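Morning!

This is the sequence you dropped in the shared folder:
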Amino acid sequence: MEGRGLRAGFTADAPPLLHMSEPLRRTAFNRLFAVVYFSAILALLYRHVQNLFLHPTTSFLSFSITLFLFISDLVLAFMWASAQAFRMSPIRRKEFPQNLKQIIKDEDFVGLDVFICTADPYKEPPMNVVNTALSLMAYDYPTEKISIYVSDDGGSVLTLFAFMEAAKFARYWLPFCRQHNIMERSPHVYFESSSHHPSIPQFEKIK
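The structure's back. Tokens below.
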């Protein structure tokens, strides 16, 4: 089904697909299980009603325990029922973000404001925050449509210095990502990964 979706996305009559979905095989099993489980819940609740109203006990303690069990089973039954909606028709979805630019122009992309919050440079190392900011700046998204803000509630000088150095590194890192279509846009992840390409001429300079 995925192959058909890809081919259909590039026909002359239909625009490229942005996503597709297919039902999972366990749908029938989920529905059968829900019917059996629901029947068991009804039988249990009917038993509670019998004990409470049709065959009431004379003991107040016994009646109270039965009532509390009935209420707890009602609550648990409601929690179970409210969680069954997404199990009745589960699907597997596949996205094709590479087709997005074939459908809309760069100027039609929505503007994005991304906020990065940090407070303690010891609990949140500046290197991690810097890697987050650099990976966001390297997104495959129109640069004039995305704005990144860093909020340092702790006012750390260390974090400020880290971002000053990151601004210098970004002059090399961002063009490098766009030129070579780097998917691992976090510098730390990219250089730690075994999938990078040292044969790229700028690799050693960037590293």
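Headline: The two ends are 42 Å apart (CA to CA).

More detail when I'm at my desk.
O.
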